Amino acid sequence: MEESNNNVPVAYTEESSIDYTAALKRLWQQRKLIIAITAAFCVLGLAAALLQKPIYNASCTFVPQTSAKKGSSTLSSLAAMAGIGSLDMGATSELSPLIYPKLLDNVELKKELMYTKFHFNKFDEPVSLFDYYMNPDYQQTSWFDTYLTYSYGLPLFLLGKLLETVLPAVPEEKASGSADAHEAEIARLSKDEYQCAKFLSENISLQVDKKDGYLTLSCQMGEKKLAAEVCQATLNLLEKYITNFKLEKAIDDHAYIQGLYDEAKTDYEAKQLLLAKFEDENRGLMTATAQIRHNQLTDDYSLAYAMYTELSKQLLQSDMRVKEDTPILAAVKPVSVPNMKSNSRAKTLFVFVFLGALLACGSVIGLDWLKSKGSKWPAWWTLDEDYVIFKK
Q1: Residues 365, 261: Cα–Cα separation, whole Å
Q2: Phi, psi at residue 327, to the nearest 5°?
C-alpha cells in the first residue's frame, strides 16, 4: 500500500483544485490547436500591421514664467481724497499650472484650433482640421475603409436612413435678432464640431510634472509635419488663453482707473478754465468778496489737479502692470518635427500573437473546466484521464 501511494503523482494539494503540472502537459498535448489559433491571430496581426496608418507624436516641454511684480503702491491717498475707501490694485489673478490641462477642454480654444489651417501632404493649400476630417470633399478613403463601410457598416447605414425616414426631422435653429443675449454668449458646438473636438481631445494631451514643475504638451497626427504644426498652434493658443485669464483682473483694474482718469481730467480742465475766467474778469479788483471767491476757485483747482496727477500715476502703473503680468511659456524642449512613428507594426503584430496564444491556452483550460463540470458542450471536446487539471 505504501509503494502504491508513493507511485501516485502529486496532482494537486488540498489548498488548490488545479494541477499545474497536468495543465502544462495538457497544453502540450493540445499544441496543434494552440498553434493553429495563434497562427490565425498572427495572420490577423500581420494584416492589421500592414493596414495601420502611421502616427507621429510631436511634443514640447515648457515652464510657465511671468515677470509679475507685486505692486506696493495703492490708491489709499486717492481714495481718501475721493471718499471711496481704500483700494488695492496690486493683486492679480493667479492660475496654477495644475489647471493648464483643463484649458485644453475649453470649447472656444478647441473651436479656434479646429478652424486653424495647417499643411497636409495631400493638398497644396493649407486646410483646417475641421474641413479635413469632416468635409467629404477632403476625405480620401482607402479601399480597406470602403470595404469596411459597405460590409460591416452597411446595416448601420441602412438603419440610419430608415430612422431618418420614420422619425420627424428636427428643425434647424435659425438665427434671429431677438435671441436672448445671455444665450448668444454660450459657446456651442455643432454635431460635426463635437466630433472634431472629440478627436482633438483624444490626440492632444498635456502632462504636468508636479515634482520638477514643467509641463509636456503632446500631439498625435497621421503626418509628421502636421503633428508639429498642431502642437505649436496648441501651445500658442494655450499661452493666449492663460494670458487672458491671468490678465483679466489687471485689465479690469486698468479700465476702472482709465474711467476715473478721464473724469478727473475733464473736471481738472473745467476748474482750470473757471479759475482763469474769474481772474480775467476781476483783474485789479481787491474786494473781500472777490478775494474769497478767488480762494475757493483756487482750492477747487488744486484739489482737481491733485486728483488728476495721482490718477495719471496710477494709470501709468496699471498699464505697466498689464505688461508685466503677461505670462510666457518658456520652451525647455521646443516643438520639432518627429522622425519616427509612435506606432510600430512589430508591436501590433506582437500584441496579436500574444493575445492569440493567450486565448488558445485559455480555451484549452476553459473547455476542460466545462467538461469537468459535466457540460456536454462542445461535443467534440473530450477530457484526457491522464491529465486531469481540475479536481472533480
Answers
A1: 84
A2: -75, 150
Q: Are 63 and 322 within 8 A, CB to CB?
A: no
Give the SS3 label for residue 83.
coil
Short-list 257, 259, 246, CA closest to 322: 246
Measure the CA–CA gap between 332 and 348, rounded to whole angstroms: 33
Mean pLDDT, the chain, integer: 79
Tell me what pLDDT residue 167 has: 53
pLDDT tens-digit series, residues 76-99: 454 444 444 444 444 444 567 888
Element (H, E) at 329: strand 327-333
H-helix or E-strand spanning residue 63: strand 56-66
pTM for the model? 0.59
CA atoms within 13 A on the CB side of 294: 15
**In the 8-state DSSP scheme, what is residue 65?**
E
Which cell is 289 given? Answer: 468778496
Specify the DSSP class assigned to residue 247.
T
169 — phi, psi (to 5°)?
-70, 140
Judge whether 116 and 130 are in contact, CB under 8 Å: no
Q: Which residues, listed in sequence order, are joined to residue 204 by a DSSP beta bridge?
A: 219
- Specify the DSSP class assigned to residue 136: G
Helices (H) and strands (E) in the chain, counts: 15, 6
Worst-scoring range by mean pLDDT, 184-193, 254-263, 340-349? 184-193
Average pLDDT over residues 287-300: 84
